[in-house]
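Protein Record: Sequence and Backbone Structure Tokens
======================================================

Structure line: whole-number tokens from a learned vocabulary of local backbone shapes, matched to residues.

Purpose: to set a sequence beside its fold so the mapping can be learned.

___
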Amino acid sequence: MTGFLNRRKRVKEDDSEMTFIDHLEELRSHIIRSILAILIIAIVIFIYRDWFFDNIITGPINPNFISYKALCKLSHWLRIGDTLCMPPVEVVMQTTTFGGQFISSITIAFVGGFLVAFPYIFWEFWRFVKPALHEREIKNTRFAIFWVSFFFFLGAAFGFFLLGPFTFNFLAGFQLGTEHMLVTRPTLDDYIDNLVNLILGCGIAFELPVLAYVLTRMGILTPTFLKRTRKYAIVIILIAAAVITPSPDWMSQMLVFIPLWFLYEISIIISTRVFKEEQQKELEEWS
């Protein structure tokens, strides 16, 4: 931490004597601006909470959701019948406390605010870290904000549009016993928790190629290590898939495992390319 702060002293010439408290003050300003961005977006979402709830939050359990129609059309286009067509399920949620719907509205607003403001939050974080980097490191991390945001939103979209419908359709339609004496009636909090876990879990998991790029640039990771530990990575990805998906069915877990495994293979390719570039730069510096 001390080394990192010392490297940040070259932000400006007159900042060469910045104290530890000065750095904390600057960090606080970045955090405050990030929180304000989340708060502003959260207020907008809260004002239009009914529209967000009807069209976005309950999307994965809506029989008319775009993913259900797209998957069914894809199934027919592939000539596999109704294999990918999921039967519509009726989900009636409930709240068990007087303030349940109000608290859930607050949760929806702030989680939505974080998701929408994610690129700005990362930009603020990048502004704080950037002065501690050397010119070469800054050059190697061009478009970092774009790629981090891209993979995060790609994962979030995957969790919302694909994994969510499969998961909630399976869980809502699962029946225990033969007399139909049990009725699935989840609470609103339970549904929102599962939806947030799917979206954020996939968003973070899809950052794997970016992480491989950064660690390889830093010399911490090598493509040889990734290739050698591939079999262990598969086990870890399977466990991660089981954690991300709240449903125990193999279909939902495979929907998470396959993209993550694919991203791991992409990470190997990226790491290999970056590692060769770093070696070439070292040779040029020594020559």
